[in-house]
Amino acid sequence: MLVLKTAHLKGLDQFMAGLRQRNPHETEFHQAVEEVVESVMPWYLQHEEYRKARILERVVEPDRVLSFRVTWETDDGDIEVNRGWRIQFNHTLGPYKGGLRFHPTVDQSVLKFLAFEQIFKNSLTGLPMGGAKGGANFEPKGRSDREVMRFCQSFMSELHRHIGEDVDIPAGDIGVGSREISYLFAQYMRMQNRWAGVITGKSLAYGGSAVRTEATGYGCVYFCENMLNHVGSSLSGKTVAISGSGNVAIYAAEKALQMGAKVVTLSDSGGFVFIKDGLNEAQLKFVRQLKEQRRGRISEFAERYKAVEFHPSARPWGVNCQIAMPCATQNELDAKDAKTLCGNGVMAVSEGANMPLTAEAAHLFAERKVLHAPGKASNAGGVAVSGLEQSQNSQRISWPREEVDRRLQTIMFEIHQQCIQHGAEIGHVDYVTGANIAGFKKVADTMLAYGVV
Ligand code: NDP
Ligand code: 2IT
User: Fold this and answer.
1) Ligand 2, from 379, 383, 391, 415: best to mutate by most atoms within 8 Å of Cβ?
2) 212-230 vs 380-395: helix crossing angle, rounded to 10
3) Is the pLDDT confidence value at 377 over 80?
4) What is the pTM of this model?
């Protein structure tokens, strides 16, 4: 585990005090920065060239923060006003790239944390992509398709002037799936009068990539399998607790089943379901239709199957499992949950969501030497296949499913190798440190090469 010496702690404290002062109230952003900086500080302080160039100070300052009003009309003719953002954080390694999130909890702090994480995640994929994120404090739940369409059209009426296939390429995230991507893309074409590979996560019919829908969940499972293989184990026969039941959770569950694991939980903001005998194919199909087509609640899954228990207003981390995959949202697994999981003998935690662990939970897993993959490594499969979608769009071709899946597996394997290279300790791999240093180093070296910009 990472042990910080006095000089490192002093450096970290000073740095974080300045960051907090410059960005008051942005607690999620502080948390994401601190996780990266505490990992890289010992290594950073050994490299005078980075210190002299003030790489850390520069990399935590976004290139630009765009904030705009989104006005739209409900089916009843009422006028609604939301706030939209695009944070173009860092384009050192390529055009800005990152998803859009529509959720009532979205604010500047949440999007800055996500865009900051995205810089290093995208760096780890090895593809030429900078870091960005955007979204709105819009609640799509309970809205009709037409309301969501009008919201997306209004959102894109402003966003279109800030993005482009070689400038900034958004994609989906929480609350932004295939329906929203289609509305957003159509409005971009209408405003610009041209087709461009300016959004990823498109449907196959109009330029999407095979496996993009599945990529984040599949990638999270591939990464977990790499961690387990490295210690002479595998997912086959293991009990897995998954949170969430959206895009990432569903395809993590599907791949885990294919690899012979037993998936015992799924959840949504209403609670979690416990599937004692393990999720089967028919049940997974039911959940997929429930969530993707009917936009229903996970409690309806328990209503349909007698053997499935619903636990309202609770999180799944109390169940017995060897593997945990948090795939819902940030800070959804705290120190108490981490203790419970350790008490139940958890071996590995593979993050499908972005920053799903509180800092205390992450520290606890590090102390107990649990294999813990941070999202910037284990959920990078989604943006990686987005990068592959861009490549296919540029060439005006579509690769077959097998080809994209093979490339995804290779990318996840190579991210795992980079984590080992920078995070190996005697008898253990610190994946958080490994991912942070590997992701950071490439950005820092390129910033040095660019000079003072
Ligand atoms: P979806 O909108 O498809 O699903 C989100 C899931 O998380 C739903 O089950 C939702 O429940 C639950 N959830 C969301 N917010 C909360 C909350 N505040 N409390 C409890 N449950 C919540 O999103 P995705 O599956 O795409 O995203 C899930 C996570 O994965 C996010 O952290 C995202 O940033 C990350 N991610 C996504 C990628 C992608 O390609 N989509 C790529 C990499 C990371 P409910 O429906 O009740 O709100
Ligand atoms: O958090 C993420 O990596 C995503 N939401 C996917 C971003 C993308 O551009 O595909």
Assistant:
1) 383
2) 130
3) yes
4) 0.98
